[in-house]
Amino acid sequence: MRKKIVTCKLLRRIRVTISAVILILSMGILTACSQAPESATIIAGSTSVQPYAEILAEEYMALNPEAVIDIQGGGSSAGITATQTHSANIGMSSRALKDDEKNLWNVEIAKDGLVLIVNPRNPIQNLTSDQIRDIYAATITDWSQLGGTKSKINIIAREEGSGTRSAFTELIMGEEEITPKAIVQDSNGAVRQLVADDPNAIGFISLGLVTDEVKALHLDSIEATRENIMNGSYRLSRQFLFVTDGEPIGLDKKFIDFTLSSEGQRLLINEGLIPSEEGAEK
After folding, report:
1. Which domain holds residue 185?
2. Per the database record, which ranges form the PBP domain (predicted)?
3. What is the pLDDT of residues 246-270, one digit of tens each?
């Protein structure tokens, strides 16, 4: 009888211990879940903004080791949609918001120039806005029509939904359509690589991504430089935006504040971007 009483007591103690462990684990899980929005965030969208966001995130996480910032591409439209559907915390856009997107909170993190690039072996150094429009509409199809050597122009463009393409269409093409014969690429890096490999190619990319592999053309006899973008003489420029569904809070706000801080803006300037007006005021 005594042995049964001892056994019952032991079982009760085991049950109490197990219950306590479960409670502690549950509290730990709840605590971790409640902390997740503070310690991790997903940023998605423009492949033009992506490399700069990665630099910012790397620096922020070095200063704040508890933070986890996941940077993903997909294009401006995809980033804005991801923000609207809450599959990303912050969207990146290299185009202005459309009317049905203007309910989203947004901030300009920097300005960027768009540059027409050719292979360094191409003798052309300057094109007018009208000539570029005619090239991309396939009205001009041979470099000899522009004073170059006789060879077919291979047109490289970005994909539909790209902020880079939207900005180029708005600032250069106007009512004209980019020819369907253009070779479409899904990132500025891919456009740059094709132009670097093809003496007859032309493409457009972010000013901050120009390297010695390609040659940046002057537009209407104006060189693409930060100074010329800031003084308005070089007109092919656009905004880089961060977008959120509502006023940013927690880590989202901290990271955006860091981006707009003097330190964040210095990082972007070092990469060839022009500081935002919002950042300049801080």
Report:
1. 113-230
2. 41-263
3. 999 999 999 999 999 999 999 999 9
